[in-house]
Amino acid sequence: MGEVDKRRLYVRRIPKVLTEEYLRKYFSQFGELKSIYVQNRVPTWSNSKYAFVCYGYAEDAAEAKEKATRIGTSNLNVEYGREDSGRNDIAPSNSLIIRNINSHHTTKAVRASLEKYGKVVYMTALRRPVYGNMRYCQVCYQRLRDAKKAHTAIRSGKFYKGAIVDYDSEEYIASKIEARGLSSRNYRAAKERESNRFSNK
Question: Domain RRM spans what residues (predicted)?
């Protein structure tokens, strides 16, 4: 798995009505773009899409990451991507966002399935997007390696059929954990220990 590339951005929660031409113009205000890829096939149940934006200079990407947080009334989620990933995914974290969960599954059942991969310290109730009946949730594992195991299993189809998974924002989930009584210092220390242990295996 490649290192985080400070010239690449992974942008989520983009309103699906926005075109590649519009997004190219929007992100070009922060610097010269080397490339941009915008998700073309957006599920009918989703009202947002993602894009991968690559700048020529890390300084331009850093400015975009800091300032490109909102388009119109929509809040964007902007993270650095990886240097050798074809999709330039968000860097792995303890947190996952899982979409395309069939509506007949309950929150309790989904959590039980996810806990097969490790201890879950936080999970949202299943939510339904504005369009469609398929649901999504956000989940955080205590250990990074367990989140990676779950991520791999879901992507390989060993979870629910058709489920889609991505790593979620570290800042978002850390704030949720801290609100539940786990200090951010202890959380970061535990995360670093698990990351080092996983990378050495």
Answer: 7-83
